[in-house]
DNA sequence: CTGAAAGCGCTAACAA
DNA sequence: TTGTTAGCGCTTTCAG
């Protein structure tokens, strides 16, 4: 492998000049630049990025932290990788498998300057531990953080859930069940709040006995259907934590002869591919914008020119299930 | 940020000794080690990885090349990230979006020593281009490569498909349709070969008019059902390129009143979560072992002690659809 | 516009 | 066992 010095010798200039050519500095005469470039091409030379990183103190790499790579986070992940790539940054995956120690490696890598910044998709370490690493580089989170020093692109799920509830009410439905996700999460709490506020505002009964929790997957949705059947009085509609849960509800309900949407309306969250495939009415997060914003929130620490944020708004895509 | 030199000064030893402590060299007296470690802890020191990488000429990073991050490759991806992490290697994602130039960045990064090795999941560049980078570091591929210089962990799909066909024949079925994936791919060709060989061997008719191609997603499976209905004579069974296609076939067939498995048996490939959820009989690739082997194939260029390969065998998981 | 030289922070061969 | 001293390959003042 050839290096800077070799190119310098062969072209008859100094390392400094070659470096300037490489970095597109304006302080190089066109002829010099041309000569140097010719040698570079001839030698098939490329700069060693470790040397560049060491010298510059930047790696143009961003770490992405998650428990695992699941379908749920896929759209966000790919959008982020995309957004980062647009600005010349690469993305390294850190999967923790819920192991605190393993996750910590990502933060250590920020400290060790292996990455210039960190995106937390999901994290298992304590917030105090995490924010202690803030001084080593920018950190941003997807999930809402209870600490103000870690910015987040999370959206207030209240607004999205309100959209879903409003829609059902406007369909004339009054008995609404809910299949929530992680019970302790702030997102779930905001969703509950939205449901209860709107029901109360319309003078309708809040059915806490129709809260199903920890629903994440297709199978969870199927189970929910069976539990609804044993309820005596049956709900007219259900709002599901995500499209997979809703898919489970839909397939199982239909299999048991339930008429969707006439006897049971279904609204889900995320509006992923499967929602359009199965005809699910779904609340859409602006995931691409969220991912873009995640990078934008990191950008002050990465680029000379920070990126502006894009607006984040929920949308409702109405399909056959309502 | 403190550095080696600072630790050396504070502990009263040389940089070399501190470096030895860091690298767990045996040629350091216990007392010295203890003293140095104390200072390291006190100063909250960690070595700069760029400097280490530059000096050692290794980064402990592996690039993973794919067109996009889709559900199809997820299990393989996560398994690989896992396998690499077990040996201290991190994984960088390179998504090409089918853009040759963008994909080339990954290969340039191998040349620039940003990564020590490369895993190709899917690639859009010409093989001749790719193998030209072989001299810069180890490259391994998931998909089968037509060139011997790029090793691959792809399995001969002939064997897996044979398993599926055999199973259907043993169910007493003789009229079998097939929903294949990418028509030009070697995998598809091997699958076709297996089907045709086995049918011929049993003196049964090979139904090329029942080949459906380019089936990848749930929706493709649904379409296949409709096309099967217009066939005049109907197949008794269908083998699908993957679980999603099979899921589409299953749901649409049932929706149209087809009795699965009695009137239509379905076998799919990959045996992913959805297969068990929906009760699909599915052929299982040993994905974890494939991912492990991918790293093992890279390992001669990465580790002093190359890793042994694990055996790769297809398996058939029989469920309700047959 | 160009060059010399001092870093960036760590490793490793060679001495002692 | 420990220290000295070149590197690793590039960037960036500072002079000229």
From TrEMBL, chains A, B:
Highest taxon of source: Bacteria
InterPro entries named among the record's database cross-references: HTH_LacI, Lambda_DNA-bd_dom_sf, Peripla_BP/Lac1_sug-bd_dom, Peripla_BP_I
Phylogenetic placement of the source organism: Bacteria, Bacillati, Bacillota, Bacilli, Bacillales
Name listed for the protein in its UniProt record: LacI family transcriptional regulator
Keyword terms of this UniProt record: DNA-binding, Transcription, Transcription regulation
Domain HTH lacI-type: 2-56
Record bears the keyword Kinase: no
Keyword Plastid carried by entry: no
């Amino acid at each position: 492998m050839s290096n800077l010095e070799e190119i310098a010798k062969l072209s008859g200039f100094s390392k400094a000049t070659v470096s300037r050519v490489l970095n597109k500095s304006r302080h190089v005469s066109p002829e010099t630049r041309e000569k140097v470039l010719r040698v570079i091409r001839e030698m098939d030379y490329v700069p060693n990025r470790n040397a560049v990183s060491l010298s510059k103190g930047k790696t143009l790499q961003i770490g992405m932290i998650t428990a695992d790579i699941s379908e749920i986070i896929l759209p966000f992940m790919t959008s982020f990788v995309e957004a980062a790539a647009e600005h010349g940054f690469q993305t390294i995956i850190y999967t923790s498998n819920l192991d605190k120690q393993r996750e910590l490696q990502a933060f250590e890598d920020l400290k060790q300057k292996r990455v210039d910044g960190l995106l937390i998709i999901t994290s298992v370490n304590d917030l105090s531990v995490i924010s202690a690493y803030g001084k080593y580089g920018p950190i941003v989170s997807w999930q809402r953080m209870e600490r103000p020093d870690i910015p987040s692109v999370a959206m207030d799920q209240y607004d999205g859930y309100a959209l879903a509830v409003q829609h059902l009410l406007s369909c004339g439905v009054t008995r609404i069940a809910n299949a929530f996700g992680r019970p302790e999460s702030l997102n779930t709490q905001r969703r509950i709040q939205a449901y209860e506020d709107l029901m109360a505002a319309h003078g309708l009964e809040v059915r806490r006995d129709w809260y199903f929790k920890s629903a994440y997957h297709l199978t969870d949705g199927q189970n929910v259907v069976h539990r609804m059947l044993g309820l005596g009085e049956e709900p007219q509609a259900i709002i599901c934590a995500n499209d997979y849960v809703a898919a489970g509800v839909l397939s199982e309900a239909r299999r048991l002869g339930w008429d969707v949407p006439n006897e049971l309306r279904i609204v889900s969250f995320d509006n992923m591919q499967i929602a359009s495939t199965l005809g699910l009415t779904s609340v859409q997060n602006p995931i691409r914008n969220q991912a873009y914003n995640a990078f934008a929130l990191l950008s002050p620490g990465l680029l000379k020119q920070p990126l502006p944020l894009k607006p984040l708004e929920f949308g409702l895509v109405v399909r056959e299930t309502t």
